[in-house]
Write a structure and sequence with these properties.
transmembrane helix, 168 residues, globular, membrane, Inner membrane protein YbaN, 8 helices, DUF454
Amino acid sequence: MLRKSQPHQQESDSSPETGMNLDRLAFDEIHPAFLDTLDEQAVPTVTGLKKGIYLVLAAFFFLLGVLGVALPVLPTTPFLLLTSYFLIRTSPRLNQALLRSPVLGQVLKEWQQDGGVRLSVKIQAISIVVLIITATLIFSPLSLLLKSVLVALACVGILVVIRLPGLH
């Protein structure tokens, strides 16, 4: 089983002893229904035309997620979560292959199971964004306006990464 929704638990997860923070609580209150849909046992597979549409959407979001690894302005995790969402409904076998992926699988599993990202992954993502943006600013012939827009988008991306719930 992948992940149980935190708000439905009877235990007091918000106590200081558990290390639960307000960002995590807010995340669970907003997204538990979506995260529970990533549970393979709870979701029936689709058939027919709907299956074809879901496979196309899974492929589309997977491509966006892979692009997000290299492009600092495109997030990776949300697209991979959407990929998993559609794959569970069409082909649990393909979803398991995605989860076993050496590059993307571990981050996706941690996000689905624990609802967060390790600090080392955040540091790596921010470092890649900074390196790519710096190289672009130094070596590209873009206008000052485009470079400014690129820096602004990169700052938004970095802010999103920083605000992701962390794993302890």
